[in-house]
Structures are given as structure tokens and as C-alpha cells.
Write a structure and sequence with these properties.
Among the domains are: 92 residues, Efflux pump adaptor protein, beta barrel domain (Elongation Factor Tu (Ef-tu), domain 3), CATH 2.40.30.170; 72 residues, Beta Barrel (OB fold (Dihydrolipoamide Acetyltransferase, E2P)); 73 residues, Helix Hairpins. It starts with a helix and ends in a 7-residue tail after the last strand. α2 packs antiparallel against α3. The protein is α+β, with helices and mostly antiparallel strands. The chain has 4 helices and 22 strands. β19 and β20 form a beta hairpin. The protein has a 6-stranded antiparallel β-barrel with strand order 2-13-16-15-14-17.
């Protein structure tokens, strides 16, 4: 019996201590309020654009003659000058194509020879006034047309055999050269690969991708909510995932006038000219985010926006008196906000203490 009384007494003591601690802790929680001092600072209103770094001008190199890749002169990453050789194409006609081209030259050669002789006879007869001027003009025209047809077939045969020819003083050859000063971004062919020519009815084989890496831009999209606040010339700060410690500066210079839909979101394309890279080495294709500075204010009173209580169009904060500790509800006027902090234009002074009420506990 005595043992049972001792056990019951111990349980009662433990329960009493636990209840005391719980009540004390809850009382402390009710009394504790976070304090925040009103401070001077700066605030930035900005819009976020998501995209990547790209060359402003990028070209795809193609061939105007068909064949097989004979030799490649450059590799990915090489810098090239305008007119530098990139690749040599070896003609690779089918037996039928070669035979037809060869026979066509022979046929046009015979036809031209006949027309030339006919023209010379007509010229002699005209001198003797045995034919009319009209007959002479017709013979001259026929001889000229036959000569042009012969030249055309010879040029076609030359392209098929050697991959080079001259057309109207323009040199066409099997060595493809760079049309710009730039860098080889992609090499899409190897020795032995077949090449389809670029014509008016087919796209042709992509050989290389070239671009001027000295003129890089940011291409991305911005949400329709922010696009109305943007205008050309706004400063931007680019943050590149591959260069987390570097900050790149730029200027917004192009905003698309037309929206596009992506995953049920309405977006607008934009382009940012990169103005300052510091010591960073940028590469085409880097993923990046751009903060477009819409408005910036410095040396202003700032408070966390969460401390404000809005009643209709009026903003209130709880201010703690530093001497008495009493809490007073004050009306304030606000200005620029970045979503976390907000500018106070009237109602508070630097150094005042604001009280943040603890969140309501779920019971």
C-alpha cells in the first residue's frame, strides 16, 4: 500500500512539472514579438527574362555543288577570316550523269560547228547580194545560240569532272570558303560524307555553323505581366548558370510586338545587348536569367512588406516605443516594392522599431 502511494505521488509531481513548463512556454510565445528596425537602403523593381546567350549573327555554310567531302580545313572552335577555305568537295557523279554530260558536249560541239559554217556561207552570199539581210541575221543568231549551248554543256561537264568552272566571269570551285570573319561553332560533316547542293528547290547539306563571337546577345522571353513595364534602353543584369560568381551587364534593345504561347503561358521574345562582361568568357548556348531594371531608388526608408496590415486603401504598422515598450498602430504611406521590402514615404523615421506579430497557432 505504501509503495502504491509513492508511485502515485511521483506521477502527480511529473504531471505538474510538465504542465508548468507547457504553460510557461505558451505564455512566452504569446509575449514574444519579432522586432524590426526601420533602416535606409535601396530597392529595385525588376522583371525576369529567361533565355540563353547567342551570337547576334549566325550563318549556316552550304555547298552549291554536289559530291563527297574530300578535305576539311577547319575544326570546331577555330577562328576564320573571310575567304578562308573551310572544306573541299570532290565531285561524285553517277555513271549516267557523267555519260550524259559528256555526250551533250559532243552533240553541242557538232551543232555549233554546223551553225558556224552556215553563218560563214551566209556571210559570203550576203557580200555577193545573193541572200537577204534577214537570212544573214537568222544565221548569225543560230550560230550564237549554238555557241552558248556548247559553253553551258562544257561548264556542266567541268563541274562534274573537276568541281570547278567559270560562269560569266564568276569562279565556281569545289573549295567552300568562309563568307564572314568568325568562329566555327559546329562542324557537321566528315571526310567521305555525301553533300547535297543548295538549290532553289532543296535546302542542301549543312556543312558548318559560323558566328561572330565578338557580338553576343541574350535572347529570351518575359511574361506578359511584366512586358507592359518594359521599354528599350533599360539596363539589365545577366546571371549565367555556368558562371555563378560573375555578373554580366547589358541593355534591353528589342521587344517583340507579338506574343507567343508556351505551356499555357503568354510570353514575349526580347533581346539584350551585352555591354560588359569583365573577365568572363561567354560561350554560345549558355543558359541565363536577365533582371531588367524597371526602376531603382537609393537612400530610402525600407521595411519588410510582411509587417504591413492593409485595411482597404490604408496601410498600418505596429510601432514599439523604445522607452516605454508600448506598441502603437500607425498609418503609413508606401512607395516602390520589390515583393519583399517596400519603401515608406510617410509615417516612419529611421531607427524606429516595428513589431511583427507571431503567426496564429493552429489549434
Amino acid at each position: 500500500m505504501k509503495k502504491k502511494v509513492i508511485i502515485i505521488g511521483a506521477v502527480v509531481v511529473v504531471v505538474a512539472v510538465f504542465a508548468f513548463l507547457v504553460l510557461k512556454g505558451s505564455g512566452e510565445k504569446k509575449q514574444s514579438n519579432n522586432s524590426v528596425k526601420v533602416e535606409m537602403g535601396s530597392i529595385i523593381d525588376k522583371a525576369l527574362a529567361i533565355g540563353q546567350i547567342e551570337p547576334k549573327n549566325q550563318i549556316s555554310v552550304k555547298s552549291k555543288i554536289s559530291g563527297i567531302v574530300k578535305k576539311v580545313f577547319v575544326e570546331m572552335g577555330d577562328s576564320v577570316k573571310r575567304g578562308a577555305p573551310l572544306v573541299e568537295i570532290r565531285p561524285d557523279p553517277t555513271p549516267l550523269e557523267y555519260a550524259e554530260a559528256k555526250r551533250q558536249v559532243e552533240i553541242d560541239s557538232v551543232n555549233y560547228e554546223n551553225q558556224r559554217k552556215e553563218f560563214e556561207r551566209t556571210q559570203e552570199l550576203l557580200a555577193k547580194k545573193l541572200v537577204s539581210q534577214q537570212d544573214f541575221d537568222q544565221a548569225s543568231r543560230s550560230a550564237g545560240e549554238a555557241e552558248l549551248r556548247l559553253k553551258l554543256s562544257q561548264e556542266r561537264l567541268s563541274l562534274i569532272e573537276r568541281g570547278k568552272t567559270n560562269v560569266a566571269g564568276r569562279k565556281i570551285e569545289s573549295v567552300i570558303k568562309s563568307s564572314i570573319n568568325g568562329t566555327v561553332l559546329e562542324r557537321k560533316i566528315n571526310v567521305g560524307d555525301p553533300v547535297v547542293p543548295l538549290t532553289s528547290y532543296q535546302a542542301g547539306t549543312d556543312l558548318f555553323t559560323l558566328a561572330d563571337m565578338n557580338e553576343l546577345i541574350f535572347r529570351g522571353t518575359v511574361d506578359e505581366i511584366d512586358v507592359g513595364k518594359l521599354k528599350e534602353g533599360m539596363p539589365t543584369i545577366l546571371k549565367i548558370g555556368a558562371l555563378p560568381n560573375d555578373t554580366i551587364h547589358g541593355v534591353l534593345y528589342k521587344i517583340s510586338p507579338k506574343a507567343k504561347k508556351e505551356e499555357n503561358a503568354t510570353l514575349f521574345d526580347l533581346e539584350i545587348k551585352i555591354t560588359e562582361t569583365g573577365s568572363s568568357v561567354l560561350r554560345a548556348g549558355y543558359s541565363a536569367n536577365a533582371d531588367i531594371i524597371i526602376k531603382k531608388k537609393e537612400d530610402i526608408l525600407l521595411i519588410p512588406e510582411r509587417l504591413i496590415e492593409f485595411v482597404e486603401d490604408t496601410a498600418f504598422v505596429q510601432v514599439k516605443d523604445s522607452t516605454t515598450g508600448e506598441i502603437e498602430r500607425k498609418v503609413i504611406k508606401t512607395g516602390l516594392s520589390d515583393g519583399l521590402n517596400i519603401e515608406v514615404t510617410e509615417g516612419l523615421n529611421e531607427g524606429e522599431i516595428l513589431v511583427e506579430k507571431p503567426p496564429k497557432e493552429i489549434t
